[in-house]
Each structure stands twice: as structure tokens, then as C-alpha cells.
Amino acid sequence: MAISFDLTGKGALVTGANTGIGQAIAVALAEAGADVAVAGRSEPTETLGAIAATGRKAVNIKADLSSIEPVGRVIDEAVAGLGKVDILVNNAGIIRRDDLLEFSEEDWDAVIDTNLKTLFFLSQAAARGMVEREGGKIVNIASLLTFQGGIRVPSYAAAKSGVSGVTKAMANELAPKGVQVNAIAPGYITTNNTAALAADETRNRQILERIPTGRWGRPEDIAGAAVFLASQASDYVTGQILAVDGGWLAR
Ligand code: NAP
């Protein structure tokens, strides 16, 4: 069988796609042929326009993913708009920074709920249809802090380490049903999430010095891996965390 990255006829749901990495992934999936629904709390005007410009269908689902309350509705609206959800990209995420000794319960719960709990329950809801059709792709957005502890971000490190666990757990149970579950661990990518780091001259210099590629990543740098993990080309890849980090973890 010829290797194919073509997503024509597929329905993809991407969370948190109004900006940054999610936006780049949503547009790339559309460029590869998928119809794309985006779910988030902010108006994704630019993303919807970019998807429509590829000639694919763009569906907007308004949802605050800081709790699992909207999960069922998000899948229902995605299925109503796309016909089915063949591809789910769990991208929505937040980060809270504070010194370890000051770190609050609120900053713990907010990050775990959005970055880990919603990711699992949205995957569970999407997987029901995928299992029924015996095919599907779930792509979770992990982090370098899936592998490392970071500084001043304990709930983020915990959540992103947890993403590795649930990715593998879901992969094991869903593999016999024809559903692959993988994650992408982006390196340091220029987005809202990292604006505070990039603005800190010392941290910015330290980060750049450690990246073999010698530059921060761009959201588009993540898109190729997402298309691969959403496509038939990755049908024998499951339970993996693919780092797209300019070589950071190789150091
Ligand atoms: P971003 O520009 O801040 O994007 C985060 C996205 O998640 C936004 O669309 C945001 O919507 C959405 N989101 C956050 N909380 C939400 C909620 N409660 N309900 C619905 N949507 C919500 O940052 P990004 O860097 O592209 O982040 C995307 C993913 O990549 C995250 O999971 C992040 O942890 C991960 N990541 C980023 C980097 C990096 O270097 N940038 C590295 C590793 C991993 P709003 O605009 O409404 O907030």
C-alpha cells in the first residue's frame, strides 16, 4: 500500500486553535485535506478563515475546556458539523508560573483540569465513535516538561508528564480497535504560552544556548508531525511521544 499523508474525507477536531500551535495544526490538517472543527473559548476568526481558504469545511465550537462539562456537547457539535471525528488533537492548554513554596491549589487545579483531565475525557468521548468505525487518530500535545521538571511550573510538569501516561494507556486499549494515540512534545515555540519566557533576557539566552538548532520553534514547525500522526502514514505508530524541539532533548 502506498504511504499517504492525505486527509481527504477525514473530520478533525482541534482544541485551542484560535492561536499558536493549535492554529498551525488546524490549518495544516485542512491543507492535507481534512474538514476541521475548532473548539475553544476565544473567537477563532483567523483560523476559520485560513481553513476555509484551503477549500475545506471549518466548524466553530464555543467551549471552555477548563472543566469536562462541555465535553459531550463538543463531540456532538463536531459530529453534526463534520459527519464524524476521525482525528482529535488535544492542544488547548495553560501554564501557571510561581515559586514552588508559594504555588497555590488554584494554580495546581486549573492546569491539571485543562491540560490533563479534559484531554482524557474528550479523548474518551471521541474514541467511542472511532472504536465503532474501527479507525481514528488521537494526537495529544505534550511538552519538554513531559520529560523534565522545568522551573516554577510544577502543575504544568505534572500535567504534561500525565499526558505521557494517558497517551500510552489509551494507545494500549485502543490499538486493537484500529485507533492510534500519540503525543507531540513541542520544544520552545514562540506563542502566548512562552511570551513571558521570551521576554526574560536571561532565560531567553539560556534557552537559546541549549537549542542545537539555534532558534526558537515556530507553530508551523509542529504541523508536519501532527499531519503525520493524523494520517495513514503513522498507522503502525502508537503510544509514542514525538519531540519536535530543535534538538533540545538530544543535548
Ligand atoms: P497559546 O497560544 O496560549 O494557545 C493555547 C490555546 O489553548 C489557546 O487557543 C487557548 O485559548 C486554549 N485554551 C486555554 N485554556 C482553555 C480553556 N479553558 N478552554 C478552551 N481553550 C483553552 O499557547 P501554545 O503554545 O500554542 O499552546 C498550545 C499547546 O502547546 C498547549 O497545550 C501548550 O501547553 C503546548 N506547548 C507549548 C509549547 C511552547 O513552547 N509554546 C511547548 C510545549 C507545549 P485562549 O486564547 O482563549 O486562551
From TrEMBL:
Keywords: Oxidoreductase
Keyword Lipid metabolism: no
Matching Pfam families: adh_short_C2
Superkingdom classification of source: Bacteria
PROSITE patterns the record matches: ADH_SHORT (PS00061)
Family indicated by similarity: Belongs to the short-chain dehydrogenases/reductases (SDR) family.
Record NCBIfam families: kduD, PRK07231.1
Stated name of the protein: 2-deoxy-D-gluconate 3-dehydrogenase
Source organism: Novosphingobium panipatense
